[in-house]
Amino acid sequence: MQVLFTLCGLVAVGFVLLITVYLVISGIPAIREIGLFRFLFGKTWAAGQDQYGILPLILTSIYGTAGAIVIGVPIGFFTAVFLAKAAPKWLANLLRPAVSLLAGIPSVVYGLVGMCVLVPALRGWLRLPAGDSLLAAILVLAVMILPSIISLSETALEAVPREYEEASLALGATKLETYFRISAPAAKSGIAAAVVLGIGRAIGEAMAIMMVAGNVANMPALTQSVRFLTTGIAIELNYSQDGSLQRQALFSIGLVLFLFIMLINAFLNLVLKREKEG
Amino acid sequence: MRRRLYEITGRALLYGCAAVTASLLLFFIGYILFRGIGGISWRFLSTAESVINGTVGILPAIKNTVFIIVVSLMVSLPLGVGAAVYLTEYARNRRFVAAIEFASETLAGIPSIIYALVGVIIFCTALKLQKTLLAGSLTLVIMILPTIIRSTQESLKTVPQSYREGALGLGSGKWHMIRTVVLPSSVDGIVTGCILAVGRVVGESAVLMYTAGMSMAMQSFSLDRVAGASGATLTVALYHYAKENADFSVAFSIATILLILTVIINFSASFLGRKLKRS
Hints:
The complex is a heterodimer of chains A (about 280) and B (about 280). Chain A has helices at about 1-35, 35-40, 55-85, 90-105, 105-125, 135-160, 160-170, 175-185, 190-205, 205-210, 230-235, 245-275; strands at about 45, 50. In chain A, helix 1 packs across helix 12 (about 245-275) and helix 11 (about 230-235) packs antiparallel against helix 12. Chain A is an all-alpha fold. Chain A has a single domain, classed as MetI-like (MetI-like fold, Orthogonal Bundle), CATH 1.10.3720.10. Chain A is built from twelve helices and two strands. Chain B has about 280 residues and is an all-alpha fold. Chain B has two domains: about 1-35; about 40-279, MetI-like fold (Orthogonal Bundle), CATH 1.10.3720.10. Chain B contains twelve helices and two strands; from the N terminus they run ααββαααααααααα. In chain B, strand 1 (about 50) and strand 2 (about 55-60) form a beta hairpin. The longest helix of chain B has about 35 residues, at about 1-35. The chains are: A mainly alpha (about 280), B mainly alpha (about 280). Chains A and B meet through helix 1, helix 3, helix 4, helix 5 and helix 6 of A and helix 1, helix 3, helix 4, helix 5 and helix 6 of B.
């Protein structure tokens, strides 16, 4: 029996190795053929003309994620403080399940609402020829990372020892000063973990932004139609020929994205470990 | 004066952001229900799309979703529970445990578009399964494995050590003890893990679009044909109707169904989770 259970345990390790090996093996040939520098820093992606430069995709992914973090983190953080400290109990008990519902909603549903509400609204407000844009993608991503940021930060804030807050209140600080100057700094590594998790979510999301970003491989600009690393794979995967350079280039994008994600995960583990020790 | 200003801005930010979140939630859910609920009827749920009659039905998508849930759980559940049992009951080597836990965390952090690529490379191409429901299910096995490992492990940890000692003291062997004492008393956690896994499968779209196909036709699940069946699940059907047919009322009706499923999944998982915590 022990052997069987050991094997089950090793399956997870095997899967990780399998994924890594296959992604590397499938991702290398195209990079070799195109040239690493021209692949990573080429400014045009045009499969029809055999041009495979993913700089616009990389920059779009970075800008898009940064934008989602800039909008989503403050809103998420203050909502978490509200839920953990300031909210009346009945309201918190109502909001909490709603936030976790938001976390469970499939990403295509976000994409659908983005397509039908956000995109036309942006087109009207900003007088654009089309509303599909980096801005629309950023807003959708910001909403999508909100639940993980709220629930992780809230957990961290609730783990702050009551004595810290009581001491602060007894010294004459107001409640708000206590939340922001005592509780939040004490929970900072948990909140940092929430932010890193949000970054991971945002950079890995494909379907929702495929529905609102327009998917043209332009250099990123807020009101332009753009293509992310994830959507770069998604949009052409069904149309590329098996074994063609185009398909192999998609695998190479996958490898680049995988490296990004592994970097973020390593960072997350570091933050979480620091929290455990601190 | 400065302190007063601090108080006012702080309060405004707190209540303002909470209000933004709450109204976002209300709008989101309200809007989906508003546009989707009208299109749901018995015929919508119980027939396939028919061009001749001009009617839309999502029964094939429902069946495909159920099929994928069943197959991926059937493979992933024994593997995940086995891994968790190994980690909590058998493992002696700390390096080994660290490696498995790291692997499981890594799997949990990989985004679904990477799983889609992996599925296309490994299951559809290398194993020659083509774009089928089977290939999709097998890809999802990898994706939901960490969910099942983690929640099983958490509930195994809550089984009191005295149960184990009691069983062993009465002369039971280790496997017998796990089978008759440890696993039955952690069944809540295992079921919670399954529910969370079902949630991930129901919500998944990127993987299935590229590994399981997008057909909206009825598939045959008879034993000789099942390996070749390919088709869209609910989420993929939603994408198909919204992006390729621009038929938004159908898309919103599917979104409503997905929303209801998410509510059910969330509530049952948190209900079981709370029960687990109490015991």
